[in-house]
Design a protein that fits this description.
The chain is about 65% helix and about 0% strand. The protein is mainly alpha-helical.
């Protein structure tokens, strides 16, 4: 369950047994997230939240969400499961984002080291740096001085372009070539009057199209799975 995964990611105790509708654990979670991860209020402003036995705690909690401009205020004072899940998920998402931003360099370095270790090389060596830049050039990626960024860019590109299906298709169609379209010649459909803004708009449009394609692939896979289940059910019955 997504809720438990996020709790585990934050190192929260009893993540597996946590239930949003259990008032005591719910209030304790809110206090813990604010004290250790979110830290939106100053230390002396958290007294009302920390007093979890106070009958006016819900009022303090609603104000807390309002102060943070939570987009789910319609669910703030509700105790039903769906509302609690929505609010808790938002708080956990905020906590995880802040946790990452606090130690972004550490996490990024750890990811780079993990990738390099799996390849059996020292990611920080001059040899590895030269090779990763050469690979970026072969993949037609921009070469940058930030080695961590270069590793992540090359890794992401390899995972996206060299899927088993893509490799199989390339082997079966060795003569097929794909024309690369220049961003400068890509039609936008409107003009902002500024070259930089036009370029940014083209990039955003391409990213949006890419996301739509990924979504369509996921939907197709889901439909195929449902159809498979229906066929199996008919065969069994």
């Amino acid at each position: 369950m997504a809720l438990q995964r996020k709790l585990r990611a934050l190192g929260y105790p009893n993540a597996e047994t946590f239930k949003p509708t259990d008032e005591g654990p719910f209030r304790n979670l809110v206090v813990s997230l604010e004290d250790t991860k979110i830290r939106f209020y100053a230390e002396d402003e958290r007294a009302a939240l920390r007093n979890t036995e106070n009958r006016k705690w819900s009022t303090a909690f609603v104000k807390y969400l309002e102060d943070m401009e939570c987009p789910h205020m319609a669910h703030a004072d509700s105790k039903d499961l769906q509302s609690r899940l929505i609010v808790v998920d938002w708080l956990l998402g905020r906590a995880i984002a802040l946790e990452y931003s606090d130690d972004a360099a550490v996490y990024n370095q750890a990811q780079t080291q993990q990738t390099a270790t799996s390849l059996g090389v020292d990611a920080n060596s001059d040899t590895a740096t030269a090779l990763i830049k050469e690979l970026a050039t072969l993949l037609k990626l921009p070469v940058v001085e930030d080695v961590d960024l270069q590793w992540r860019g090359v890794t992401s590109t390899l995972l996206e372009r060299f899927t088993p299906a893509a490799v199989t298709y390339a082997i079966q169609h060795p003569q097929e070539k794909h024309e690369r379209m220049s961003l400068a010649t890509l039609p936008l459909g409107f003009d902002t009057g500024d070259v930089t803004l036009n370029t940014a708009a083209k990039i955003l449009r391409l990213l949006h199209i890419h996301e739509l394609r990924d979504l369509q692939t996921s939907v197709n896979q889901m439909l195929a799975g449902v159809q498979d289940l229906v066929i199996r059910d008919k065969l069994v019955n």
